[in-house]
Each structure stands twice: as C-alpha cells, then as structure tokens.
C-alpha cells in the first residue's frame, strides 16, 4: 500500500489558517511587557502545523534512505517510515530557539523602574551600553540554553541509534552524556542538594538533609531513566507518543497550579514552572502532529529518537524546574514496566530482540508474546515463574513432562493482555492511555494532598519574600 505523502486541499487550508493565526498572535505579543505564555501557545500551533506537514512530506524520503520498519501487528506487515520523531525533534528545537526573544522580551526591552511602573522604559540601544545588563536574568537564560543543549545532544544520539541500531546495554547510558550540560548549570546556578525530611523522621534527621553529590547522581539517574522508560513502553501503534502526551499534559496542569490566579503571584516556584511550560507547549504541539500519523493504523513509526527526545524533555523540565520527584509520580506505569522487565533486561530470563505483543492473523487480535525456553529454567527460576503464574503476573506453558517451555514476556503490555485477554491493537493503546491518565492523576493527588500527611506544607502555599 503506497503511503500517501501529500496534504489534502482541506488539510492545507486548515494548516495555513493555523499558521496565519499563530503568526498574528506572535506579532501581537511584542506589545506591552510581552506575553510569553501566549507567544509559546502560538508558536506551538505553528510547530504543530510544520511538523504535521513535514511528517507527511518526508515519509518517502525516509524510506528511500532506509529508515523504515515493519509493522509487526498487521496481517501483511507493511513497511512504513521509521525515525519520524527526528522530524518532530528538529521542529521542536527550532521553536525553542525562536522562542528565546519572546521569553526574555520584558527583560531585554521593557525593563521598568519596578512596582509595575512603566515610566522608565529601557530601549535596547541603552541596554547595549551595558547600563541595565545586571537586571538581565542570565541564570534563567543559562537554564534555558542548557536544557536546549541537553535536548540537542539526546536527539543526535537518538538519531545515531536509529541509524545504527545500537545494542541495548550500550544505549542505556546514552542520556547520561546529554544530561551533563543541565547538571553543570544546576550546580552553578542552584546548587541545591538538600531535601526536606518527612515530619515523622525530622526528630532523627533534622528538617533538611543534604544529599551532596548523591543528589547529582539521582538527577543523572532521572535523566537516564526517563528516555529509556518511554522507549521500553513501546511496540504498539501510537503508544510511545500517547503516553508522552498524557505525561506532558499532566505536567502542564501541575505547572498551571503554580500560576496566578490559582497561586498568587509572586511565588518562588513561578519562574521554574513557567520554564517548564515553555518547554512543554511546543512538545505537545509536535507530538500531537506525530500522533495523528502514528496512531493505529500507523502511517509512520516514531523511532528511538522520539522516545529519547520525549523522555529528555521531561527530565529537563523536572530537573531544571525543581520537581523531579513529582515527575517520577507521573512515571508510575513506566517504573512498573521497568521493574517488571528487570529479569529479562538482566538476562535472568531470556530476552528476545522484540517483546511486543503477538499478532494473531486469524483473529486480528493481539495476545501476550512469549519467550521460549530452549533449555528448561533452573529449579529456582521455575519456582519463581510458577509463583508468578499463580499470582497471574505471568503466563507459562508447560510440556507433558511438566517442564516450562515458554513464558510471557515481561512488559506491562503483555501483562495487560494476560489479565484482559486478547484485544485489538488500538483498544490496547486506549487502555494504556487510560492507565497512564489514572496513575498520573493519582500521582498529582499524592503530590499535593497525601504528601501533607508527611510534610508540613505543600510548596504551593509558600509565600515569597518580596
Ligand atoms: C524496545 C523494546 C523491545 C520492543 C521494541 C518495540 C526493551 C528492552 N526493548 O526495543 O522489546 O519490541 O522497543 O518498539 O524493552 N514496531 C511495531 N509496531 C509499533 C512500534 C514498533 O511493529 O507500533 C516494531 C517495528 O518493527 C519497528 C520496531 O518495532 O521497526 C522498532 O523497534 P526499536 O525501537 O528499534 O526497538 P528497541 O527500542 O530497541
Ligand atoms: Mg524503540
């Protein structure tokens, strides 16, 4: 089946309208103090339109360059373009770069004498003399640029992986290099390495505990975990992008809670949550464009580039926005998937190259895929598998001698199929979206409500010293 690679007339008009409206709004934000959030929303719509068109146009080019993959869960296993996440990632990077003057517009040209007065408007020619340069938030620009640099690194490494199919044990550490720029900026600009101790433990440990270099190890671990975790919860149409979109929208909701009117301005966390919004909005724009093409039945695959890129966007906002623990609460399905996978990742149980659910051509449904035991498992592993089978956490198949001959692959997708029975690919993807959303809302509830059981207050109630 040829991949249609042109935009229909109505799509072209709708996208042009979107770009026109976006440009109009962007130009208008260069008034008053500038409206960075509005500018970011407008840019995200433009990014959506550009990514949508580029993905459509570039499909055949990617196939010609050998960037293609077989859709395993379809009767004829069609070959479709892979690595389309790279297109999204490039559009995203350009949007972030174009956004820089909008984000700092107020600081560049519209400095006031404070207190909301607009009597001392500093024009940019004055700023060039360096008079008010000390007012410019270099720290915030450094954070922004380091986030950008980390993302650029991961995208280059991700494309390398898609081109060369690097082995899992080598690529798992790829994000560690990409994390270096933002960890350095974190060290120079914030350097905060102490964490609040839960109230019941404060008697023994004091109010704060300084984790020192361990805190940097923890942040590097977050940066390694997020991209790999998204890449591991993959294998059915749309799932990589859909889970990332759910996480991004929930993070955006969390950020919005720190802005006026929900949290009175000024609040110490406002700036870091604005930072997160600027990174998330265009991400949502380009990811939605990708999802339009990647949802069942997929016209394109996202490639590892997208998974790494998406995970790194979350790591950047979580680390530089100072809410990495909240971020992890939104990653509960991914954390479960990783922990559940560990026996296969560490080869205690054999791990085939692909663990995606198996397509049954006669029913058109997906069922849990299995790993075959060529050599029967050792008694200890057989006992563990039997126990998990009894708990319905895995499904094993035995031969007439009672030896285990196959066991289901240890991924959340396969486990869901063991629990719910075979189902269509898009239905499974919807189920996963529902699980991600439910876990995410629960995570945010834990963060802002249940955490009050062990901490004195939610940081939204902190008041800044003005
Ligand atoms: C990871 C998983 C692997 C899983 C794969 C699926 C680990 C350690 N590795 O490997 O088990 O099989 O992702 O992406 O957990 N594909 C489809 N339909 C889809 C998406 C992908 O058939 O909706 C197939 C295509 O053939 C595509 C390939 O998966 O070409 C992409 O796999 P790749 O991203 O290279 O696998 P890994 O990330 O290495
Ligand atoms: Mg992958």
UniProtKB/TrEMBL annotation:
Cofactor dependence: Mg(2+)
Major subcellular location class: endoplasmic reticulum
GO molecular-function term, one example from the UniProt record: metal ion binding
Transmembrane segments: 12-31, 37-63, 84-105, 141-160, 172-193, 213-233, 245-263, 275-296, 308-332, 428-446
Reaction it catalyzes: a di-trans,poly-cis-dolichyl phosphate + UDP-N-acetyl-alpha-D-glucosamine = an N-acetyl-alpha-D-glucosaminyl-diphospho-di-trans,poly-cis-dolichol + UMP
Entry membrane topology: Multi-pass membrane protein
GO biological process annotation, one example: dolichol-linked oligosaccharide biosynthetic process
Catalytic EC class: transferase
KW Transferase (keyword) present: yes
GO cellular component: endoplasmic reticulum membrane
Pathway(s) where this gene product acts: Protein modification; protein glycosylation
Subcellular location: Endoplasmic reticulum membrane
EC number: 2.7.8.15
Keywords: Endoplasmic reticulum, Glycosyltransferase, Magnesium, Membrane, Metal-binding, Transferase, Transmembrane, Transmembrane helix
Recorded family membership: Belongs to the glycosyltransferase 4 family.
Function description: UDP-N-acetylglucosamine--dolichyl-phosphate N-acetylglucosaminephosphotransferase that operates in the biosynthetic pathway of dolichol-linked oligosaccharides, the glycan precursors employed in protein asparagine (N)-glycosylation. The assembly of dolichol-linked oligosaccharides begins on the cytosolic side of the endoplasmic reticulum membrane and finishes in its lumen. The sequential addition of sugars to dolichol pyrophosphate produces dolichol-linked oligosaccharides containing fourteen sugars, including two GlcNAcs, nine mannoses and three glucoses.
PANTHER family per the UniProt record, alphabetical: UDP-N-ACETYLGLUCOSAMINE--DOLICHYL-PHOSPHATE N-ACETYLGLUCOSAMINEPHOSPHOTRANSFERASE (PTHR10571)
Identification of the protein by name: UDP-N-acetylglucosamine--dolichyl-phosphate N-acetylglucosaminephosphotransferase
Organism: Penicillium cataractarum
Phylogenetic placement of the source organism: Eukaryota, Fungi, Dikarya, Ascomycota, Pezizomycotina
């Amino acid at each position: 089946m040829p991949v249609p690679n042109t935009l229909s007339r109505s799509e072209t008009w709708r996208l042009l309208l979107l770009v026109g409206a976006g440009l109009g709004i962007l130009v208008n934000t260069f008034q008053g103090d500038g409206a960075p959030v509005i500018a970011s929303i407008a840019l995200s719509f433009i990014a959506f339109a550009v990514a949508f068109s580029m993905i459509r146009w570039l499909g055949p080019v990617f196939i010609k360059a050998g960037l293609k993959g077989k859709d395993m869960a379809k009767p004829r296993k069609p070959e479709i373009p892979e690595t389309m996440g790279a297109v999204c990632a490039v559009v995203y990077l350009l949007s972030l770069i174009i956004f820089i003057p909008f984000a700092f517009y107020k600081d560049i040209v519209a400095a006031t004498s404070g207190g909301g007065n607009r009597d001392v408007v500093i024009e940019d020619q004055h700023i060039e003399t360096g008079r008010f340069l000390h007012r410019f938030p270099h720290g915030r620009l450094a954070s922004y640029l380091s986030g950008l640099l980390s993302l650029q690194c991961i995208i280059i490494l991700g494309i390398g992986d898609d081109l060369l199919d690097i082995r899992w044990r080598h690529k798992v550490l790829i994000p560690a290099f990409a994390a270096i720029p933002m960890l350095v900026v974190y060290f120079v600009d914030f350097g905060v390495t102490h964490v609040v101790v839960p109230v019941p433990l404060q008697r023994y440990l004091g109010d704060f505990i300084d984790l020192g270099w361990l805190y940097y190890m923890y942040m590097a671990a977050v940066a390694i975990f997020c991209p790999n975790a998204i890449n591991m919860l993959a294998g059915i149409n749309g799932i990589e992008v859909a889970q990332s979109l759910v996480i991004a929208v929930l993070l955006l909701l969390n950020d919005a809670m720190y802005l006026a009117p929900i949290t009175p301005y000024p609040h110490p966390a406002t700036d870091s949550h604005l930072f997160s919004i600027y990174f998330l909005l265009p991400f949502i724009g380009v990811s939605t464009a990708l999802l339009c093409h990647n949802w069942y039945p997929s016209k394109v695959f996202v490639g590892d580039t997208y998974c790494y890129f998406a995970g790194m966007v979350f790591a950047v906002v979580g680390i530089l926005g100072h809410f990495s623990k909240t971020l992890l609460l939104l990653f509960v399905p991914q954390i479960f998937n990783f922990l559940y996978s560990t026996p296969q990742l560490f080869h205690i149980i054999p791990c085939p190259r692909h663990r995606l659910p198996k397509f049954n051509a006669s029913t058109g449904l997906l069922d849990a895929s299995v790993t075959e035991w060529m050599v029967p498992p050792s008694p200890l592993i057989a006992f563990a598998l039997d126990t998990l089978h009894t708990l319905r956490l895995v499904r094993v198949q035995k031969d007439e001698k009672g030896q285990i001959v196959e066991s289901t692959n240890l991924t959340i997708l396969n486990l869901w199929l063991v629990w719910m029975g075979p189902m269509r690919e898009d239905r499974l993807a919807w189920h996963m979206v529902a699980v991600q959303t439910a876990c995410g809302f629960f995570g945010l509830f834990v963060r802002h409500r249940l955490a009050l059981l062990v901490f004195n207050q939610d940081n939204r109630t902190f008041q800044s010293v003005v």
